[in-house]
């Protein structure tokens, strides 16, 4: 009996020593400590944003300073960031040189304007159908459309070239414009996402009043979708304005060149005048910069809403 008592006492004593001590809950931060944490997080976010801004802005600043350098400073080694004096004549010499960049810009404006128009016409209709019209195979067709975004663009270059060459479209603008009238999967997706955010009650009321689907699209959906349409226009404008790969494949005559192709010709027999080339490149990118700053708020709102909405 005493042995049993001793054993039980020892077991209970050993079990109490084997338990881990209970952890105390962390003390809540005081108001001063919480404010310090918030300031540190805010400072870290600002540091990351400033670093990212420098990475993206640095090449642009180099382009600007190079466009204002003299020919000697252009070839100096080691390179110098700032020119000793600003040579604004590089813009005139580059633009009015041996190549007709005014014609190149007019060609680019024509192709870009028609391409943007084609994207709007061809993407609005299927986006509205996928968003508001229920069909048995709608989900399957929408999935097939989204699957086309996984196909690399380079894979379709050879089949498209064979097709357009048999149609006699080589050395014309048709291969650059006509495909834009057959829809772009990304733009259809973005517009479809925005259309789903518009209240269904508005559409039902219009249908009760006898409005057709096209009238609903024209009078209700499009006026309420200006931010998304602005985003699509800007994406399409930038993509077609900077188009180089397909332009160099299909356009053969120099008089039909676009600005990206014209910049590729900015060389002579012995050296490339990088200062004049950067000056012309700055002029070529000015329309994009101007349009973005004019429609900046609408564009950002459209991208935000199309990114977070949808069902």
TrEMBL record:
Main location: membrane
Transmembrane stretches, start-end: 43-64, 104-128, 135-152, 172-195, 216-238, 274-295
UniProt-listed CDD domains: TM_PBP2 (cd06261)
Keyword Transport among UniProt keywords: yes
Cell compartment(s), UniProt: Cell membrane
Start-end of Gly residues biased regions: 8-17
Gene3D superfamilies: MetI-like (1.10.3720.10)
One Pfam entry name: BPD_transp_1
SUPFAM superfamilies: MetI-like
Membrane-related topology note: Multi-pass membrane protein
Residue ranges occupied by any ABC transmembrane type-1 domain in the UniProt entry: 105-295
Annotated spans, Disordered: 1-32
Family membership: Belongs to the binding-protein-dependent transport system permease family.
Record's protein name: Carbohydrate ABC transporter permease
Gene source species: Nonomuraea longicatena
Lineage, uppermost ranks: Bacteria, Bacillati, Actinomycetota, Actinomycetes, Streptosporangiales
């Amino acid at each position: 009996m005493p042995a049993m008592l001793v054993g039980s006492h020892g077991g209970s004593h050993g079990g109490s020593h084997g338990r881990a001590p209970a952890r105390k809950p962390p003390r809540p931060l005081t108001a001063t400590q919480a404010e310090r944490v918030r300031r540190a997080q805010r400072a870290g976010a600002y540091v990351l944003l400033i670093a990212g801004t420098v990475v993206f802005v640095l090449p642009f600043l180099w382009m600007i300073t190079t466009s204002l350098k003299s020919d000697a400073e252009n070839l100096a080694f080691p390179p110098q960031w700032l020119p000793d004096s600003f040579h604004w004549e590089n813009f005139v010499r580059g633009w009015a040189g041996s190549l007709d960049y005014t014609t190149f810009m007019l060609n680019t404006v024509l192709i870009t304007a028609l391409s943007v128009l084609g994207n709007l016409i061809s993407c609005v209709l299927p986006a509205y159908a996928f968003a508001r019209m229920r069909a048995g195979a709608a989900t399957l067709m929408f999935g097939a459309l989204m699957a086309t975004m996984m196909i690399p663009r380079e894979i379709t270059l050879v089949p498209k070239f064979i097709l357009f060459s048999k149609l006699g479209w080589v050395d014309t603008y048709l291969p650059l414009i006509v495909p834009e009238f057959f829809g772009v999967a990304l733009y259809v997706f973005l517009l479809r996402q925005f259309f789903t955010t518009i209240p269904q009650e508005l559409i039902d009321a219009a249908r009760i009043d006898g409005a057709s689907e096209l009238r609903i699209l024209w009078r209700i959906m499009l006026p309420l979708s200006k931010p998304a349409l602005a985003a699509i226009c800007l994406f399409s404008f930038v993509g077609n304005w900077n188009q180089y790969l397909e332009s160099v494949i299909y356009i053969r005559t120099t008089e039909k060149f676009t600005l990206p192709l014209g910049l590729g010709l900015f060389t002579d027999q012995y050296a490339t005048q990088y200062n004049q080339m950067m000056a012309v490149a700055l002029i070529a990118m000015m329309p994009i910069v101007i349009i973005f700053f004019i429609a900046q708020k609408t564009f950002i709102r459209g991208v935000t809403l199309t990114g977070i909405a949808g069902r």
